[in-house]
Design brief:
alpha+beta, Coagulation Factor XIII, Chain A, domain 1, TIM Barrel, 3 domains, twelve-stranded mixed β-sheet, 20 helices, globular
């Protein structure tokens, strides 16, 4: 009798047994069964699951996405597996997508599985991202053919966290510029030794002077000063911190025109106040019983007039009515000028005298004595605030979720900046972004990210911080800047928008630091001092140098980013090649109110100090103001600085600057480029030769589009570019920045 040959189990049966019957969820032997390598492709760009990015333009086709993952099962003969043997499904919480999205085994023309190494590849059907927000996606796999097939979560097979997609308003991808403003300091004064706060309407009057697209307001809420339980005055400095929020639903009275001076009739006539405001304020501002009169009609308040209405119905209530009217007036004027206004949203704390401490003590981290803990971040101690117990605290999170939508609806604000967003748990940030986008799909969510780059890669916001402030203030050579920029491009998801700045409310004024540093150098070098006195006309040479450095830093922020190369979405990579995530971070410049005229006084909102806007009418502040106004207009024409890839021209070799003092790079598209050359040196004109052999087209004669010397009214030595055997030879004067547009054309005649 012939031997009976053993029957090999069908590959589909082995697949099914290994996936469904051999292991418990979370206890798979990943040497034998593994799933992972998740990625998502959005309009041709590839992203890791930690965070993918897309931009939704109202007039354009919504972004198209497709998710990919891999599966390994030992002892399965890949050639015998067909598409029906294993399937997957994609679950995503983005609205407008039919759930679940089918995923299929990738196969060749004969129906056999196409492998990536030893792994099967599963891809979803394409789907469109039709709403702004932050969305999660997960994958389930099944090898059971039953109609009621069991599904196994990818995270139960191997460690695979949920993927995240941030869909941002399309206008954010155009690199909107930002001015940070502390309302308390706008046109503030000290009279008879008393600090007189700036007001909302002071900023409204100055809006047209601000050279940026977005105005970011530091917290405008009513601040607290004391400890509710001890009665101790715990304020920071003399004035207290604007980040010690006592009430998220009241405006700081110091920012508002006193009701005795306000023209209530004019506010009503301008439709800045309505009866609903009266009802809302009367419900939120509680007064002592003896002054808590019944809610009036708005017409009664107008007829009574500010002084009498304040006495009759409570001054604090009238202040809040006037405050929201003036905040609306601010946003209305900004919108007329084509600007947006966002505000600082504080999520981690309140003041130590907030009524929330009594109403909801369970919302706070408590010390051993049952009192709210103070807030500490690293070496920073915020002794004037009480720390929220935010992680996993759903009632508190639900309360905070409504703060931003309230003010956006009430006063037509255009989004938020999230204070210390890197310290907030990511699921709550996703809920917050979605709630804000529900209120306004075009709103901006800017996240403060003062942390290592790797710790900010999964923060679900529309724009992060670029962390260039220290480089701008202290770097004197180009290579460290280029190294950091390239690290940033390789760390953040493709198309990440990063706000870059050189000073803000957390730092000393860089312009002051530079001015003091340059004054010391000039004092020690008489020849150099004479040179700079000639440039400045004998007036404040160190101040002029600081203004040049100020403008140079902003020009770096405006041009040194990178928009990712768009892949060919319709061309699929070979199955054996695992697609790598794309990279590229686009910078957008931000300044603090005062940067544009070279302010040297720190904002220091906790103390009795004033800024000096009168400097915008004096040399060299007046020239710097003009340069920023010119930049704001010209930069909108530099499409390469918003959509181009980047090539950094390092100084190694004979053609570069031997002392590494020239920072040069090219932002380029298919038929045009923007060459940017900065001289970081304060002493001498430097020459470099820029080669373009790496470019796919031949540039013709360069056309200068911006010169920081000319923008400040300074004469520069003649340094017209010319072409040599080494490339385009360019000279830049000390602290000068020059920008050139390049387009295809006949090459310049070469010089020996």
């Amino acid at each position: 009798m012939p031997d009976v040959m053993p029957v090999e189990p069908a590959a589909g049966s082995v697949l099914r047994t290994s996936l469904h019957h051999t292991y418990r969820a979370g206890h798979y032997d990943n040497w034998r069964v593994w799933a992972g390598a998740v990625s998502i492709e959005i309009d041709g760009l590839r992203f890791a699951p930690a965070l993918g990015r897309a931009y939704l333009h109202p007039a354009s086709t919504p972004p198209t996405a497709r998710v990919r993952c891999e599966l390994f099962v030992a002892d399965v003969v890949a050639a015998s597996i067909r598409s029906g043997d294993v399937v997957a499904r994609l679950c995503i919480d983005a609205p407008g997508i039919e759930q679940p999205v089918p995923m299929h085994l990738r196969t060749d023309a004969q129906g056999a599985a196409e492998m990536c190494g030893a792994n099967f590849v599963l891809e979803s059907e394409p789907f469109r991202l039709q709403h702004t927000g932050a969305f999660c996606y997960t994958i389930d796999i099944s090898a059971d053919p039953d109609d009621r097939r069991p599904w196994i979560a990818l995270s139960d097979i191997a460690p695979n966290p949920a993927g995240v997609i941030v869909v941002s308003p399309g206008w954010v991808a155009e690199a909107p510029t930002v001015t940070e403003v502390c309302l308390r300091k706008v046109d503030a004064a000290v009279r008879d030794g008393t600090f007189v706060s700036g007001r909302i309407n002071h900023l409204t009057a100055r809006l047209q002077q601000l050279p940026t697209d977005v105005i970011y307001l530091l917290p405008f809420f009513r601040a607290g000063l004391a400890d509710l339980q001890t009665g101790e005055d715990v304020r920071k400095g003399t004035l207290g911190s604007v980040y010690a929020v006592a009430d998220f639903y009241q405006i700081d009275p110091q920012l508002v025109t006193p009701p005795e001076e306000a023209d209530l009739a004019a506010l009503v006539a301008a439709e800045l106040l309505c009866q609903a405001d009266v009802a809302d304020v009367w419900g939120r501002v509680v007064l002592p019983a003896d002054s808590n009169h019944a809610m009036p009609l708005l017409a009664e308040l107008v007829e009574a007039g500010g002084p009498f209405a304040a006495r009759q119905w409570g001054r604090q209530r009238l202040l809040q009515l006037v405050g929201r009217a003036e905040l609306r007036q601010l946003t209305r004027r900004a919108h007329e000028l084509g600007k947006r206004v966002i505000f600082d949203l504080v999520l981690m704390q309140t003041s130590r005298d907030s009524t929330l401490i009594q109403q909801h003590p369970e919302w706070y981290v408590l010390d051993a004595k049952g009192r709210p803990e103070i807030h500490r971040i690293a070496w920073l101690v915020y002794s004037d605030v009480a720390l929220f117990d935010l992680r996993g605290n759903l009632p508190l999170q639900d309360y905070l979720l409504e703060v931003a939508p309230y003010w956006m609806a009430c006063c037509q604000l255009d989004g938020v900046r999230i204070d210390a967003s890197q310290t907030v748990e990511r699921p709550f940030l996703q809920r917050l972004k979605n709630r804000i986008q529900q209120q306004d799909p075009e709103a901006l969510v800017l996240g403060e990210t003062l942390c290592a780059l790797r710790d900010a890669t999964d923060i679900p916001v529309d724009m992060v911080y670029a962390l260039l402030v220290d480089f701008h203030r202290d770097a004197e050579t180009a290579t460290p800047l280029i190294d950091f920029l390239e690290q940033m491009h390789g760390t953040f998801a493709a198309g990440t928008m990063a706000m870059a700045y050189f000073e803000n409310h957390d730092s000393p004024r860089a312009t002051q630091v530079w001015g003091e540093r340059y004054a010391q150098v000039l004092a020690a070098d008489p020849a150099l001092a004479r040179t700079w006195r000639r440039r400045s006309g004998g007036t404040s040479p160190a101040t002029l140098m600081a203004c040049l450095k100020n403008l140079q830093a902003t020009l770096i922020d405006a041009t040194a980013g990178m928009w990712p190369a768009q892949a060919q979405a319709q061309v699929q990579p070979p199955a054996a090649v695992r697609p790598e995530p794309s990279g590229g971070t686009q910078l957008t410049w931000g300044i603090e109110w005062g940067s544009e005229w070279g302010e040297t006084a720190r904002t220091d909102f906790e103390n009795v100090t004033c800024l000096h806007p009168e400097s915008r009418h004096e040399f060299p502040g007046q020239q710097l103001v003009g340069a920023y106004a010119h930049l704001a207009i010209e930069a909108h024409q530099w499409v390469e600085a918003r959509r181009g890839q980047v090539y950094y021209h390092r100084n190694q070799g004979a053609d570069g600057d031997a002392e590494d003092r020239v920072l040069a790079y090219t932002r380029y598209l298919g038929t045009s480029a923007l060459l940017v050359v900065h001289n970081l040196d304060i002493r001498r004109t430097r020459w470099v030769s820029i080669g373009f052999g790496w470019l796919s087209w031949t540039p013709g004669a360069p056309a200068q589009v911006f010169d920081s010397y000319h923008a400040l009214g300074l004469a520069a030595p003649p340094t017209d570019p010319d072409l040599t055997r080494q490339g385009l030879r360019i000279g830049v004067a000390p602290l000068q920045t020059r920008l050139f547009r390049l387009v295809p054309g006949a090459p310049l005649p070469r010089k020996e």
